[in-house]
Specification:
Elements lengths: L1 E8 L9 H9 L5 E5 L7 H6 L5 E4 L13 E4 L4 E7 L12 E6 L6 E7 L5 H15 L6 E6 L20 H7 L11 H8 L3 E2 H9 L16 E5 L1 H4 L2 E6 L1 H4 L8 E6 L13
Length: about 280
Amino acid sequence: MQLTVISQNISDGPDPERWPPLAARLLAEDPHVLLLQETGGRSRMEELVEHLPGWAAYLAPHDRPAGTAAGNVVAFDPNVFELLHLDESLSTSTLYGFAVVTVRAHGVDVPLSFCSVHFDPNSALAAGIEAQRVATRLYSGGGAGLLGGDVGHLPADPHWDDEPTWASLPHHRRGSWAAAGTRYDGDRTVAWRLEDKGLTDVVAHLARLRNDPALCRPTAVGGVRVDQMWATPAMAAAVVAYERLNSRVRKHSDHDGLKVTVDTDGLDRRQLREFV
């Protein structure tokens, strides 16, 4: 079975008309799962769901005030999936919250876990700790997991993801992306922590397989591929395609959307584990 998963930072802001056309554009891609960031608080959920007709949507708990970048949502088509488990156990230990939604796709015998993330953009050190917590919980559904979202920091390998143009960045962004004590050297701590947990940056993985550096183009302002998707070993083997939705969403967000295709026949069942 082939599943389409889209991650999109919707950049919640003062424009109330931003979400409806963006939702229509995302649904036009025929997704099965949506991982959304910056959706706002629970007061916005009714509006979100209104423009995702028939979908199930789960907002991760968070304690940030309205108007911040909070609001990580996992949404899926209940005609394709049934909910097995919702793990919110460590959500409020991160700046913007997270939840791991584990589902079963009809006709697929392996539970699939999905998580929408927005890590702390102010500090690679803080975001690295968040990444470790999220990555651990991503395995809680049995091992076939995919997280996507605004990771907010540099990917792991400078061969595929160049340093930003430091002189063009505001100082707060330089301080977030540069290693402490350097002038300037990119801090790739967040990606390294995700790799330490066994996760694969699926876009970089496909770029290596195809020798196609264009896949790693930046996804937002600043010249960095801050929007990323990471998969557990069981899931990484099943990711077969990636597309950046920049031209279709940039009118309504300052982030590109990410679209990946998962072929469940490719799931590495040898990597499934009981979570203990």
